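The instructor's notes for this session suggest beginning with a concrete chain rather than abstract definitions. Hand out the sequence below and ask the class to guess, before any prediction is shown, which regions might be ordered.
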Amino acid sequence: MATGAQEAKFTNRLAKETSPYLLQHAHNPVDWFAWGAEAFEEARKRNKPIFFVGGLQHVLLVSCDGAAEFENEQIAKEMNERFVNIKVDREERPDVDQLYMTAVQGIDAAWGLADERLVDA
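After discussion, reveal the predicted structure:
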């Protein structure tokens, strides 16, 4: 097949999503889940905390930031071993965005909305 397209080394669950933001991370070595019951069930089953990242497709800072950290295989290996990793498109899920923005403001965290939580927290 001589299409010129290079096959991805990694493909995670985000490849099944429709959000441009989530699809942008579909070939990261991080084992990403989209926000939903499957992710929370996996966290319970593995007894692992959640690493949550909320982002926007049109925010350049988020796009650049994700490329540097989430494409690094060693960082991804650690994340995959220690957490159930969840990404959410803040534009598609404003309810989740509002919940976490309120929490982040309450704990005085930096902008960017990456957070880790225990499953039952």
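Then share the key points. The beta strands are 32-34, 50-55, 84-89, 114-117. The longest strand covers residues 50-55.
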